[in-house]
Structure formats: C-alpha cells, structure tokens
Amino acid sequence: MLASLPLFHRIAGQPVIVLGQGEAAEAKRRLVERAGGRVVDELAEGIDTGARLAFIAHEDEASANADAIRARCAGLLVNVVDRPALCDFTTPSIVDRNPVLIAVGTAGTSAGLAKALRLRLERLLPQGLGRLAEALFAARSVLKERWPSGSERRRALDAALEEGGALDPFREQVDGAVERWFAGEAGGEQTRATIVLRSTDPDDLTLREARLLGQADAVIAGADVPGAILARARADAARLPRGATAPEDGIVVELVMGQG
User: Fold this and answer.
1) pTM of the predicted model, to two decimals?
2) In the structure, what pLDDT confidence band is assigned to residue 7 with cuts at 50, 70 and 90?
C-alpha cells in the first residue's frame, strides 16, 4: 500500500502560507517562490485570500501545533516542518528537468535518504530531458495521425523510449530527435507474452519482465498473483481474469505463478 498519494500541485500566482523564521522557513519560502506561488506570512491573511496550502516552521512546538490546528480547521492542507505526524503532506526532494519533475519522498522518515537518491538521479538524467518532453507534447497531432489508436501510439512510444530506443530518455537528445524518429520509425508490433513468476516479490522480476509489464495494454492474472506485482503494470492497463478473452491488439501479458 502507498504510504501517501504523490501529487503535483500547481500554485503559480496563488497565495501559500509560510509561517515561522529561520533557515527552515526560508527554505519553504524559496520552494514556494520557485513554483511561482505568492508567499503569505500571516495565517489570517492567507485564509482570507484563498490559500490552500500552509507551511509551518515554528521552532516552538506549542505554536506549531496551534497554527496547524487553525489552518486545518480553515480547510488548508498543512505541512509542519520536522513534525511528520502533524503533516497532511510532505515535500519531496525534487529533480528538475522542467517540465519533467521527479519527486523523491520517504513519507517524512528520512530527508537525507531522499536527498541522496535525488543526487544520484541528477547524475543519471540528462539536462535535455525537458526538451524531449516538450517536443513530444508539440508532436501530439502528428502522433495521432501516424498511429490513430491509443494502443498503437503506446507501443510506438514504448519502443522509442525504451533503453537503446530512438528517444531513450537517459541519453542526451539533440534538437530534431522526435522528427527524425517520425521519419524512420514504424509502429510497434502486437505482442503476447507469458511471465512465469518465481516468487510473490515484485523485485524478483527481471528487467525485461518489469519493462514488458509496464508496457502492457492488458494483464491476465489469476487470484493467486499478488497485488504488489500487478501494481507494476500501467494504471490504465486492462486487468483480466485467467481464461478471459484477450484483446486482439496491443501488448497482452499473462502472469502465472511458478511451482516453487
């Protein structure tokens, strides 16, 4: 089960309450401003102007508790610095490749671990990743014209974006990469595959199996296949019981528990 629900909250031009003094409060103010939000330093003013989020960074625990209660009673979502039990939401460590954002969170258990993971990802992800996202967004009409059905587009994009593909996101892209892909790329082929599970642990999936499951348009599985493994499939992939009629097109993956 997820410890929390990750969301990207748009705050550009919106009031966001930040209470407190010192380094922690200043860090939250910089974070709000970086996302285009308007920092409000007074709780009452923030409530009156329609703020939806409140960061509370008082060093005094009683003051932090009191303002958290007031903000929550006014309908705001609250983050209390260094007090996870009082938080409605936590702020992740962010890898910024605008418009691509990768948020690393630990549900407030270890900011140091989140930072270490972010720094590792910073070294892996090319600076041009955001330009690739923008180029794909700009090419939506061409994508729909080239591959009219949603399943065709997914297969084509999955093939282009996988490791070693024409648009591998871990490789620095040069301008015109998407156009060159259109010029030489054909649509993905229909695929039917069976994965024999060696255990109930999703970490035991091979890299190829995990990639195939993440690309599947439909997943066939019996009741004995654990939810943790099914969760590795795309959220919009069809879930079908064993024995069901599989779709005629797209990538269909059947999961079977091994005899172990």
Assistant:
1) 0.74
2) very high
